[in-house]
Design brief:
Blueprint: H1 2-10, H2 12-48, H3 55-63, H4 71-74, E1 79-84, E2 96-101, E3 107-111, E4 114-116, E5 119-131, E6 134-142, E7 148-155
Antiparallel strand pairs: 1-2, 3-5, 4-5, 5-6, 6-7
């Protein structure tokens, strides 16, 4: 304590800079707190002024591509389900809920040319992707001495063995 007192009495400019820095910091924190509180009040007021829709009104506005709806509600999907929200919480205090359903059912097909030993063949492939990262493929080898076929289960990964 004596060392701090000795430093403060020996260098009054350093003490003044420290006090000014503390005052500026406190004023800045008060300003940031006021700004955050004001933003919260604006959002709460906008939520109170929001239009409440029933299921049919929401569905009609989606079909009309109403630009006042959020982009997620207008997103093109296989199916849109609008249901009454019976489980209201402070975080989701809406009368209806939007559920977007995508039935992922992409098909792929391919044809090519193959050679095995002295045999040449034409592979014809049909692949059904039953999720975004997994598929089943059937391939038929047409031509050559012995026609053949393959059945494959495919997985898509971000990294091959953690290397690439």
């Amino acid at each position: 304590m004596n060392k701090l007192y000795a430093t403060a009495t020996a260098n009054p400019k350093a003490v003044a800079v420290l006090i000014i820095t503390l005052i500026v910091s406190i004023v800045s924190l008060c300003g940031i707190g006021y700004y955050a509180w004001q933003k919260h009040a604006d959002v709460a007021e906008k939520l109170q002024q929001a239009i409440v829709l029933n299921e049919q009104q929401a569905f009609d506005r989606i079909n009309a591509s109403d630009p006042t709806l959020p982009p997620q509600a207008l997103e093109k999907t296989d199916r849109t389900v609008v249901v009454a929200n019976t489980n209201k919480t402070p975080a989701s205090n809406y009368d209806v809920g939007f559920f977007k359903v995508n039935n992922y059912r992409a098909w792929e097909w391919g044809i090519g040319f193959g050679k095995h030993g002295g045999d040449r063949y034409i592979p014809v492939e049909l692949q059904q992707n039953f999720s975004k990262d997994a598929a089943v493929s059937v391939e038929y080898h047409y031509g050559g001495h012995d026609p053949g076929w393959e059945v494959k289960y495919k997985l898509k990964t971000d990294k091959l063995f953690g290397l690439f």
